[in-house]
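Protocol step 4 of 6: structure prediction from sequence.
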Amino acid sequence: MADVAQLPVLSRKPDGASSRARGRTGALVDGIDYGPLAEWLGFHLRMAQIASFQAFAREVGEVDLPPGRFALLTLIGRNPGISQTVLSRAAGRDKSTLTPALRDLKKRGLIVCERRARDRRSYHLSLTPAGVEMLRRLTQCAARHERNLDRTVGARDRQTLLRILRKIMSELG
């Protein structure tokens, strides 16, 4: 591993950055030496994800359900009876993060987990009536969030960004 002192110094400010520090997580802070992170796509993907998740949280307000849980509810709602294994692959989660998330959704009364008849180690996942209602409410919030993202990205660049993100997922996943 390279010694930190040997890494190149890249304290370039992002285009359009103001001279004052930003208070929100997910935005680069002026005056901080980000080193090679300033130009690394992976770092900016993560920072964009943080900013998007925070904006989603502001949109849903008092519901207190993170975007990852919303994604799980959506996948379960659109695929009633989905197995945990298939859900794990579809959501890009491993068992160590999926299990606590499902436990939380079950505790909140939003999903039911029924053992499969043929394989007692596997479960069918479905939404409860409360889960259906929560998904409806969150989908409305998510639609507003998407409109905000569309304004940020721009209609012309939306399909290009989606294509690039899908390519990253496909080739690195």
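Step 5 (inspection) to follow. Strands lie at 82-83, 111-115, 123-127.
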